[in-house]
Amino acid sequence: MTRIYVMESCLDCAQAKQQYGDNPDYEIIDIGKQARNLKEFLALRDNHPAFDKVRERGTIGIPCFVKDDGEVIISMKHYLASTETASSEPEYTSGAACNLDGTGC
Known about the structure:
Blueprint: E1 2-6, H1 11-20, E2 26-30, H2 35-47, H3 52-57, E3 64-66, E4 72-73, H4 76-82
């Protein structure tokens, strides 16, 4: 099961939730709903090398996809490109960004 870390107020996350929320192969984890979810995500974000550039930019790194094999993918666009069924998935359109400068979440 792929775990997807999201936050309700993130527009890119809303698209991920809409696309995968009803699929039993995905677990949606909203980091804003419970402190435990936030702590779990921060432990991943603070220690996993996939977040190196995210930390350098000072961004959050959501939506974040953690695949069954442990691979971490930090954008829906990159996740779609990594899946075998990417061609059958709806095209991803980035929403308005969470960052003040409009660069993403």
